[in-house]
């Protein structure tokens, strides 16, 4: 049986010899009757039975996973529990309650944590999914502090396992890794709750997720697209936490630029939808709204208005983001937008680059912070992107034209020898702007060149 390729429905069609486990003393006769009342029933019947006998059924699942080590039975049990908790998330609350009610004697988290390190990949994935739901469930009100500490320890242990797996596998190999797949499945379940989000953030989940976003955009294979979707889904869930959203919006993590690039380039609607939903959740957080404008989300949204999507949620997200960011855009100066674009190193032919008024109004701003904008422009003359090279050459030419000391400042920053090399670029547009740039660098009275 290739369990790894089987769906939940496939697994649940198999038969489990429950009586043999009762005969061996692994489950009691009462538990045998209980499992028969649950097994093969419609999921709504299973949910109702769980609500009727919550602790007895939680104890039953704990005993099965603790005492029976046959892979097919463990998988069957995990799938049953996964399906039931999917149908009603509140079922997960009964498992921490069992720990409290039995004063820690029955602890269903322990066999699940054990399965993460001692099982075949298909069991690890399902155990991680179930554990993500159960560990993220809050402790019952009024629970004794030592038992609450036990629940917190299980939660942090699971969150740390998730992050360690994400860090263990190289991002370039992650989409084909069974361990990464299991970790992401568990993470998606974990961050569905605020308690789980807090634990994932404490385990420092954002850096590896950010790395996976970067790597996943480099391939269009089905497994890579699925991993990107799972990663974005986890980030979207995390963005409901104010603490996580603040960290996601920081320039250090760099997620805003990546999310904008995904909405621009991804052909998959499910990926676009969850990227837009994440951006929506980050609106108004720190400098996130400004960064969305700076990284070019507005023209991407404008282009999306003309597209037809099968997913009805996408146009709604596009409209909302456009309206909010339009208000934000009105509060920004042209220099704010230009400076932020310059810092990203991804130059676009936005209006500032070709606006005479922009250069007349802002040429002195290039001297800020020890001529930092000038140094950045010169640095971009080494870019491998033809568009960036062309715009950088054009901007240096405009700065020399409008700044009385522009030629001297740009020369001091080392532009001349680099611009000479750019002249050799095979792209005709780059050559055109590089030629103008070099002419203005070389000739003091460059304005006479056109006479």
From TrEMBL:
ATPase V1 complex subunit H C-terminal domain segment(s): 332-446
Keywords: Hydrogen ion transport, Ion transport, Transport
Record SMART domains: ARM
Pfam family, one: V-ATPase_H_N
Entry GO terms, CC: vacuolar proton-transporting V-type ATPase, V1 domain
Gene Ontology molecular functions: proton-transporting ATPase activity, rotational mechanism
Residues in ARM repeats: 254-282
Top-level taxon: Eukaryota
Annotated InterPro entries: ARM-like (IPR011989), ARM-type_fold (IPR016024), Armadillo (IPR000225), ATPase_V1-cplx_hsu (IPR004908), ATPase_V1-cplx_hsu_C (IPR011987), ATPase_V1-cplx_hsu_C_sf (IPR038497)
Record function comment: Subunit of the V1 complex of vacuolar(H+)-ATPase (V-ATPase), a multisubunit enzyme composed of a peripheral complex (V1) that hydrolyzes ATP and a membrane integral complex (V0) that translocates protons. V-ATPase is responsible for acidifying and maintaining the pH of intracellular compartments.
Family as reported in the entry's similarity comment: Belongs to the V-ATPase H subunit family.
Subunit structure: V-ATPase is a heteromultimeric enzyme made up of two complexes: the ATP-hydrolytic V1 complex and the proton translocation V0 complex.
Protein name in UniProt: V-type proton ATPase subunit H
């Amino acid at each position: 049986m290739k369990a790894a390729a089987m769906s939940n429905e496939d697994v649940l069609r198999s038969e489990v010899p429950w009586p043999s486990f009762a005969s061996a003393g692994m489950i009691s006769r009462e538990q045998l009757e209980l499992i028969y009342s649950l097994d093969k029933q419609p999921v709504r019947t299973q949910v109702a039975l769980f609500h009727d006998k919550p602790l007895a059924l939680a104890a039953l699942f704990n005993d099965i996973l603790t005492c029976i080590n046959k892979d097919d039975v463990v998988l069957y049990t995990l799938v049953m529990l996964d399906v039931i908790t999917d149908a009603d998330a509140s079922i997960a609350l009964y498992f921490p309650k069992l720990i409290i009610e039995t004063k820690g004697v029955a602890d269903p988290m322990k066999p699940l944590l054990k399965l993460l390190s001692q099982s075949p990949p298909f069991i690890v994935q399902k155990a991680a999914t179930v554990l993500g739901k159960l560990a993220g469930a809050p402790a019952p009100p009024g629970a004794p502090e030592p038992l609450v500490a036990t629940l917190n320890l299980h939660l942090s242990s699971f969150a740390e396992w998730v992050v360690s797996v994400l860090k263990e596998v190289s991002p370039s190999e992650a989409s084909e890794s069974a361990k990464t797949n299991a970790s992401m499945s568990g993470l998606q379940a974990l961050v569905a709750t605020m308690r789980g989000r807090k634990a994932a953030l404490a385990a420092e989940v954002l850096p590896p997720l950010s790395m996976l976003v970067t790597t996943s955009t480099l391939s269009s294979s089905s497994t890579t697209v699925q991993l990107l979707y799972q990663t974005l889904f986890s980030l979207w869930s995390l963005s409901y936490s104010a603490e996580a959203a603040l960290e996601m919006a920081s320039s250090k993590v760099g997620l805003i630029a990546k999310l904008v690039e995904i909405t621009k380039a991804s052909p998959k609607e499910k990926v676009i939808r969850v990227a837009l939903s994440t951006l929506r959740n980050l609106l108004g957080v720190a400098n996130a709204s400004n960064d969305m404008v700076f990284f070019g989300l507005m023209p991407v949204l404008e282009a999306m208005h003309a597209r037809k999507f099968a997913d009805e949620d996408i146009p709604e997200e596009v409209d909302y983001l456009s309206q909010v960011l339009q208000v934000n855009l009105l509060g920004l100066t042209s220099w704010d937008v230009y400076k932020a674009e310059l810092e990203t190193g991804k130059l676009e032919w936005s209006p500032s680059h070709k606006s005479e008024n922009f250069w007349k109004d802002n040429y002195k701003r290039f001297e800020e912070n020890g001529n930092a904008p000038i140094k950045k422009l010169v640095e971009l003359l080494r870019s491998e992107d033809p568009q960036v090279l062309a715009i950088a050459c054009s901007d240096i030419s405009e700065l020399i034209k409008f700044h009385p000391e522009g030629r001297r400042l740009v020369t001091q920053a080392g532009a001349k020898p680099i611009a000479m090399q750019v002249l050799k670029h095979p792209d005709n547009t780059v050559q055109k702007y590089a030629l103008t740039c070099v002419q203005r660098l070389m000739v003091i009275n460059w304005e006479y060149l056109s006479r």
